Amino acid sequence: MPSSSLQALIAALDEVTHLGAASHPTLARNSPESLKLARAVGRGQAVLLSSHFERYIYSVNEELVTLLNTLNLAGDKIPDRIRLQHSIVPIDELGRTGWENRAPKLLDFTANEAWIWSAHSGGAILHDRLLMWMKAPHPKDLVRFFKLWGLDDIFKQITRKESSRKTLWLGVQGLVDLRNNIAHGDYTAQATQADIKRYMRGIRDFCERADRHLSVSIAKQFNVPRPW
Predict the structure, then answer these.
(1) Quick check: pTM over 0.85?
(2) Tens digit of pLDDT for each residue in 112-167?
(3) In this structure, how many other beta carbons lie within 10 angstroms of the beta carbon of residue 45?
(4) How far is CA 122 from CA 27, 140, 152, in A?
(5) In 3D, which of 139, 147, 140 has the Cα closest to residue 79?
(6) 161: how many CB neighbours lie within 10 A of its CB?
(7) H or E element that contains 225
(8) How far apart are CA 52 and CA 38, in angstroms?
(9) How far apart are CA 34 and CA 129, in angstroms?
């Protein structure tokens, strides 16, 4: 069974498909108005698909953090890569504070943050801290995210052939670039229905495979049953 995050993504993909079916019944297929509508619909689908994809990444991260928090692990049982990322915020705040004003922040750190570096106590991981660095789900950022959860190179993990890996990487990059260009006002950025279907297949394929690998990885790392 897939994660709740993947189930939500698959359901959301129907919205992209439904948007693609939008048309004006009074317009001729090749009329200028019909072509403009098709263009606008394709652009909208690209933005919507990219948003649903990005939401999956944030959602599955939150799902995994919720799992870890229910395990009530001592800090030393949490991988360093997660501990380091989680501690960036309070430590950076300390660094920006003048030495003479650090006492309150140091007290707060020892009371609320130091547990994650302890072998004797547990606490709550804040899921948003683990993804504060991500601006968009570019392939290189996906590699970084999944590495955080124990999968060293997600594109290699979920593909067997270099050609498949390259196709998947370029598909994800193409969608994210298209979405960013549209969002920044590039009126020439567009996608045909064939493009959208190709992007949808790639995103679904990536997420389904990554979802399975995540479940196996978490089970092995923390010696628990597969979460999904």
Answers:
(1) yes
(2) 999 999 998 899 999 999 999 999 999 999 999 999 999 999 999 999 999 999 99
(3) 24
(4) 63, 32, 26
(5) 147
(6) 8
(7) none
(8) 21
(9) 45
Q: DSSP code of 33?
A: H
Full DSSP string of 81-110: HHHHHHHHHHHHHHHHS-GGG-HHHHHHHH
C-alpha–C-alpha distance, residues 115 and 125, integer Å: 10
Question: How many whole angstroms separate alpha carbon 108 and alpha carbon 78?
Answer: 21
Token digits of residue 146: 């999944």
Query: 177 with 188: CB under 8 angstroms?
Result: no
For the record, the structure tokens of 214 come out as 């995540």
DSSP 134-184: -SS--HHHHHHHHHHTT-S-HHHHT-SSHHHHHHHHHHHHHHHHHHHHHHT
- Percent of the chain predicted with pLDDT > 90: 85
3-state class of 74 per DSSP? strand
